[in-house]
Amino acid sequence: MSSSGNSVYLARAIRDFGDGFIAILLPVYLTALGLSAFEVGLVATLALLGSAILTLGIGLLGGGRDHRVLLMAASALMAATGLAYAAASDYAILLLVAFVGTINPSGGSTSIFVPLEHAVLTGAVAPTARTHAFARYSLIGALAGAAGSLLAGTPEWLAPLGIGLIAAIKMMFVAYALLGVLGGLAYARIRVPARPVDARPAPALGPSRGIVYRLAALFSIDSFAGGFVVQSLLALWLFERFNLSLTAASLFFFWTGVLAAFSFPVAAWIGSRIGLVNTMVYTHIPSSLCLIGAAFAPSVEWALGLLLVRAALSQMDVPTRSSYVMAVVTEAERPAAASVTSVPRSLASAASPVLAGALFAAGYQIWPLLLCGGLKIFYDLLLLAAFRHIRPPEEKI
């Protein structure tokens, strides 16, 4: 692994560590400020929508710009976002910060950073090591996110010291801003290949355009479904349905992160044996069934148990999906393909949190889970039908 790849791994760990506690604390902070469930959902929707627009801009610039500079600029925006949330309390300002900022309410891979990181990482490894590199990339991010989720209980730990809930969460936003600075320092270590003086910007999509557009459309269904149960809203469901404490929620999300993390190398191993598309589908469907089961769980123990099983399966498509996209396009198309398959996913995921918030507010608390699980199964069946015969080069005999 080159130094550029290691820099991406380090920056991903720093960034996901921050997302790990912020995704849980964000709905707590917003409700503590007096916002309703619908208003919390609207904040999440604007955050995801803003991320989509920023990612589109990065995609348009990324082919002809220094990826290191763009990643460092994104890190500066992350730092500014944390400070802005810590300083703001007015709802209109919070909506603006959510839209232009980097805080990820899904606690996942919907992020301005991801397409650029994918392009850097793909160029840093040999094709035969690509899936394992993405599995390692996802593993590091998930473990960091799980570790970060443990810090979500910090406001409760600080309560005996006389520090109020809102003040404690503001301190966590400042910590998130500091992590943005550290991430920028990690990106600064990326080595950028020298470009000829008369070099043209990298071409956009060419021969693989049809494949990329179809994948983007299918990934959008998956992301729209996932938006109904982004981590912030799942935390809200657990708080309202079972009166789960912050400490218990942080421990639960720690273990979901750990289980997801260690599923990534397993996914790479399975993918090398049954294929990337089959791995995505045959691990995803059981995880969706577990989510649907959790919606009807009679107790918190059953709900958390099913959600833990879901966590062990639901993210196996992450490294395999990233590897698959990079494998079925030409080398010149990779930055554009990473962006085009990310932006529609971000836009689609931005639409559903506000719908989930409305369902919560109307008292239909299980419907976001049911819609998420059902739509994801529909996506898996479509993906299998459309792409089971389009294989990466390493799978062809």
Which tags fit this structure?
single chain, 397 residues, mainly alpha, Growth Hormone, Chain: A
What is the overall silhouette?
A: globular
Mean pLDDT: 86
What is the CATH third-level topology name?
Growth Hormone, Chain: A
Beta-strand share of residues: under 5%
Give unreliable regions as ranges: none
The proportion of residues forming helix, as a percent range, comes to over 70%
Q: What kind of assembly state do the chains in view correspond to?
A: single chain
User: What structural class results from the helix and strand content?
Assistant: mainly alpha
From the coordinates shown, what is the CATH architecture?
Up-down Bundle
Q: So how many helices? A: 16
CATH class division: Mainly Alpha
> Which value, in Å, is the CA radius of gyration?
20 Å
Major sheet characteristics: none
Give the tally of structural domains.
1
Q: Can you identify the CATH superfamily?
A: MFS general substrate transporter like domains
Give the helices and strands as they follow along the chain: HHHHHHHHHHHHHHHH
- The count of strands amounts to 0
Separation of termini? 27 Å
